[in-house]
Structure formats: C-alpha cells, structure tokens
Automatic annotation (TrEMBL):
PROSITE patterns: AMP_BINDING. It holds the Pfam family AMP-binding. It comes from Spartinivicinus poritis. The lineage of its organism: Bacteria, Pseudomonadati, Pseudomonadota, Gammaproteobacteria, Oceanospirillales. This is Amino acid adenylation domain-containing protein. Residues 21-374 form the AMP-dependent synthetase/ligase domain. InterPro entries: AA_adenyl_dom, AMP-bd_C_sf, AMP-binding_CS, AMP-dep_synth/lig_dom, ANL_N_sf.
C-alpha cells in the first residue's frame, strides 16, 4: 500500500484538478459495462464546462441537476464546481410538485437532465419560465470535437457556496441546506488522511446525489485517482447484486446507511460471494442495531468499521471506529469523537452545558456547519449558523469525550437514512379531505419501521389508498404513511402542541383513544 499522504485541498476545484491528473490511464468510473479512464473523464468535464459556459453559467449561479446516479451526473457536478457555480441535485424519484418547488425555490437559471427526463421537466415548467434546459449525454461529451470556449480556473474561496441539498422541512416544504467548500473539505481532508486510500482502492457510490453521504465516495475516490463503481438506483436495495458487485469489482471502500448492510447480513449474501476486498465499511444516517453489526463483522473479519455521524447541516462531524473484540450485541454504538476543528457541546433546554453523563441537546460548532438555509427567514437559526453553530435536535450524553446518541427532541426521524420531518407529513395529510387534525408517528416493532397517521375527522374513516395517493403527489415514496388510524383526541403537551412521544407510547400499549367505529388501516 502506498505511503500515507497529507491532503489539504483548499477548495473542491483544486481537488478535481489534482485528482484528474494523478492516474490518467486508470479507471475513473464504472457503470454497468461502461468504464471511463481519468483522461476520458477529464475530457468530458472540459466539454461540459464549454456547454455550461455557452448557456451563460458563471460563478455563483445555481444549476439544478435532475439526473439519476450516472456518469452524466458526475461529469455535470465537476463542470459546475470548476465554473464556481452551485449544484442543486434533485432526486428523479420525487413527485413532480416537489421537483418543481425545488427548481423554483433555488432560483436556478439552468436545469441539467438526460433525454429520459427532459420531456417530463418541460411539461412541469411554465411556458413563460426563463429556464434553460440542457440534455447531458456522456457519449456526446466524450466524442465531441471542435472549438472549446477558453476557460481559466475560477478563483474559488473556502466560503463560496458549493451546493444546496434539499431535505425534509417541518413547515410543509423541503428546505435547502447550503454547503460551502469549507464545510465539505473539513470532512474530506480528514477522511483521506484517516483511511489512507490510494489509486488502488475501489469505491462504491451507493447514496443518491442529493444525500450528503454521496460526497465521500465521489470526492475521495477522485482525490486519489481511485475507481468509483456507480450502483444504479434500482440496484441499491438488492443485496444479491450489491454483494456480487463488491466481488466483481473488488470494492474496498463502502459507505451506506445501516439498513442496507443489515439487509445484506439477513440474506446471507456475503456468504455466497467473497467480499474480503472490503477494507473500510462506513455507515451513517441511522442507528445500526448492534446484533446485526456483530454479524457483519464476523462475515467481514478483515474490514475496519466506522460509525459516522452528522446531520446535513454539518456533514460528518463525529466518528467512532468499532472495536470488534469489544462489540456488544446489546449496547448501542457511540457516535464517537469530534473531527478536527469541530467542537461538540451538550446543553439543556436553556442552552447551558450539562454535567458529563447527563443527557442534553448536541450542539456542533466549527467549519463543518452550514452557513444557513436557502432563503431562510428564522432570524435565530440564521444567527446560530452565522456563528458556525448548529443545534442538531439530537439528544446525547458524553463520557470521556465520547458521544452517545439517545434519539430526537423534536419531530424529525430517519427512515432508511432519509431525514423526515413528521411535521411535513402532517402538513400534507391535513390538506386531505375530511381530516381535521393529524399526527404522524414512527413505530418500530421487531426492527420494522412504520409511519402511522393518527387523525381526527368530522366524517367517517378515510380511505387509506386515497390518502396514499394524495401524499404521493407531494412527498417522496419513503414519506408516504403505511397505516392510518382515526382517534377521538390527539394528546397535547403543556405548550398545546401534539405530544408525539405520548401518542407513540399509547399506541405501543394499545391505549389510543380510538373512536368506536375505527380500527387500524393496514397497508
């Protein structure tokens, strides 16, 4: 293995330029039966830069990317960054209304798509909208010849905006988290040093482009001239295909949500394929059940395992390397220690530090913290972010500098690693005909997560199928409720807000005040 190299990239454009030159004849991208060398990757990015410049894209512009995980999406991201512009990834699986909202909200002047999605986007956009739609095809970019617009590297500063990642918002609409070059590089520079990866490594790109987990795979592999295997969106939930690709491509670095790894252990696919090429297995986004993690470490005895933690507003801000010999099947895993330059404080509801061992809200400060939400109007949160501080809403306690997670203190949950504001679901459900008020809660029985809607209605029971169809118009698939239950009263806390914790407890103990004619509606 190559000697450890110190990395300290000053911006993502610098990282791209350095990475593309390191291994020109090596394999950069692998997508099904297609492989691109770094030289081909570089040429395609150069052509994409010319295309964007011809359409008026310049430093600071927001550019929406409505593409599946693909070679095209990566080329587009790199071209946008080199121009000093801001990329806004949009999941192609989102409902039309949500896609249109993000496009309008981010105030982009250009939308990048491929031929499969271009017509659909055209049908969504108003005829008088001043938007430029560009189709991106890597075959055309690679084979394109002719004059290029002269391009000189744009001066990019650490605090320049890199991207906007839209997440679930409690107000009923997704909110855009602004990410700067400084924010992401605090993590990437640390990761490159910690994992000592090189051009001989092979990364797997599992998470979607709009999920901050994807940044590790995309930029760490590029920084060292390593190979990146692009896993199709229709493959990422198939444990057999995932294990097969680990074996086929000798993948050495893996980063995903725990639910995917748990699926691979439950189906025993790792026993049918030799996956000992895995050097690093990283996971984040949700709690990894210790019993499943223990099984995984047995199946992959030569790998190192890391629990990474951080909301989108901070990217990864803490980490914990699993000591396999001391791993308990019953004790939850810590979220660990802070990354360099990051400070963690555990405070009570008044913002005062709590004693070691006591629970409180985790507050993160440092260069990893977002400068704020796109178009944010809350002055308090805006001031906190301006001070490089983010109140995570996570309940933790600290022992000897190590942080332990205890859940949320608000209405946010994680579903297969996706951040979900229960308030956003409630906002949509409350617009459904017949619903007076509603509360969304998460239940977990034997490891099976389910979203349940408890609602008050002036009429009879609502039809679950109709409710699902209504929600599907506005919400991603993973936010659509599984069950619905009509109840007589929604429990409230002293502040007059819906008490979801009490509601969850009542439901678990079959003590919900259900109306006489109502029963749970199963999926």
């Amino acid at each position: 293995m190559a000697d450890m190299i110190m990395y300290n990239f000053t911006n993502l454009s610098d990282l791209i330029s350095t990475g593309l030159k390191q291994n020109p004849n090596g394999t950069a991208l692998i997508a099904n039966n297609i492989q691109l060398t770094y030289l081909e990757y570089n040429n395609a990015i150069t052509q994409a830069i010319a295309t964007l410049m011809k359409n008026g894209v310049k430093k600071g512009d927001t550019v929406a990317i409505v593409l599946p995980k693909s070679i095209e999406s990566l080329i587009t991201v790199m071209a946008i960054i080199k121009l000093g512009a801001v990329y806004v990834p949009i999941d192609i699986a989102l409902p039309d209304e949500r896609v249109l909202y993000i496009i309008n909200n981010c105030q982009c002047k250009v939308v990048i798509a491929d031929c499969r999605w271009l017509e659909n986007i055209k049908s969504l956009i108003a005829a008088d909208a001043q938007l430029i739609l560009i189709e991106m095809s890597y075959e055309e970019l690679i084979n394109q010849e002719g004059s290029l617009i002269p391009f000189h590297d744009v001066a990019i500063h650490l605090d320049d905006l890199l991207c906007i990642l839209y997440t679930s918002g409690s107000t009923g609409q997704p909110k855009g988290v602004k990410i700067t070059h400084r924010n992401l590089l605090n993590f990437i520079n640390w990761a490159l040093l910690t994992f000592n990866v090189s051009k001989f490594d092979v990364f797997a790109w599992h998470a979607k482009l709009n999920f901050d987990i994807s940044t590790f795979d995309i930029f760490s592999s590029l920084a060292v001239g390593a190979s990146l295997v692009i896993l199709d969106d229709d493959e990422i939930m198939n444990p057999y295909i995932l294990a097969e690709k680990i074996y086929k491509h000798q993948i050495s670095a893996w980063y995903s949500v725990p639910s995917i790894l748990q699926l691979m252990t439950k189906t025993n696919v790792l026993k049918h394929f030799d996956c000992q090429s895995l050097r690093y297995v990283l996971f984040a986004g949700e709690v990894f059940h210790p019993k499943s993690l223990k099984q995984l470490t047995i199946m992959l005895p030569t790998a190192r395992f890391f629990n990474l933690y951080g909301p989108t507003e901070t990217n990864v801000c803490t980490f914990f390397e699993v000591n396999v010999d001391q791993l308990s099947e019953t004790q939850p895993l810590p979220i660990g220690m802070c990354l360099p330059n990051v400070v963690a404080n555990v405070c009570d509801e008044n913002g005062h530090p709590v004693a070691e061992g006591c629970k409180g809200e985790l507050i993160i400060s440092g260069p990893c913290v977002t400068p704020g939400y796109w178009g944010a109007k809350d002055p308090l949160i805006a001031q906190q972010h301006a001070n490089n501080t983010h109140y995570t809403g996570d309940l933790v306690h600290q022992e000897n500098g190590c942080l332990y997670y205890h859940g949320r203190i608000d209405g946010m949950v994680k579903i297969n690693g996706n951040r979900v504001e229960l308030g956003e679901i409630e906002h949509v459900v409350n617009q459904f005909s017949g619903v007076i008020d509603a509360a969304a809660i998460m239940t977990n029985k034997e490891g099976l997560q389910q979203l349940v809607i408890c609602y008050k209605s002036a009429i009879g029971e609502i039809d679950l199928i109709d409710l699902k169809r209504h929600c599907a118009r506005f919400l991603p698939k993973y936010m659509i409720p599984h069950n619905a239950m009509k109840i007589t009263e929604l429990p409230l806390n002293p502040n007059g807000k819906i008490d979801r914790r009490r509601l969850t407890t009542l439901l678990a103990n079959d003590q919900i005040p259900v109306s006489a004619t109502t029963a749970a509606l199963e999926v």
